[in-house]
Amino acid sequence: MHKHVVVILPHPDDESFGCAGTVAKFRKEGVPVTYLCGTLGEMGRNMGSPFFANRETLPEIRKQELINACNVLDMELVMLGLRDKTIEFESRDEIAEQIKQYLDKIEPTLVITHYPEYAVHPDHDAMGAAAIEAVKRINPEKRPEVWAQAITNDRYDVLGVPDVLQDVKDVFDIKLKAIECHASQFGGMLKKFKENAATTNDEEIYERFYREEFYRWKF
Length: 219
Prior knowledge:
Layout: E1 5-9, H1 14-28, E2 33-37, H2 58-73, E3 76-79, H3 92-106, E4 110-114, H4 122-136, E5 145-149, H5 155-159, E6 164-167, H6 172-181, H7 183-199, H8 202-210, E7 211-216
Parallel strand pairs: 1-2, 1-4, 2-3, 4-5
Antiparallel strand pairs: 5-7, 6-7
Helix pairs in contact: 1-6, 2-6, 3-4
């Protein structure tokens, strides 16, 4: 059993869509989980459906949504204070060192992040690369395992079969509640999301909703 899990992703909602089921399973086992969230997603294009936010109010709304989602998932939240949509332009070295300071303090046995170059969004790729660099700087004797999540359509062709396949059907209700917390971004999509989950065939359900996949990063 892992001693402590740290999730390192760039935006509010990344945790809910990407690994909420895995987090919920760890928490049910009594394993502490901490989320190092890079930004507040303040440059997000969605302002609610119908609109209830604007460019000035969105950061605070997304911050509260993030807090609510982390409460649902029962995991500790640390906000790193980076700026949305600029992580790729920041110093990877500095971000990695910032992350490492937290990892040195927490001493996790597992880090979950995005797989660089296979995570669709530039912030995802840059945050994943910085997180992996931070772990790389830890003494190998204390270095945590890394699970990297790839999202691109070609991930299987290039990276092969994921090393970790998490069936999260038994905690899907928790995952859905966490997703629902991010209403400013996905309020209009949630109805379709639920309808799809109810009408899709069994194989597709597991592929799209009930399974979370990760590659073990090899240093």
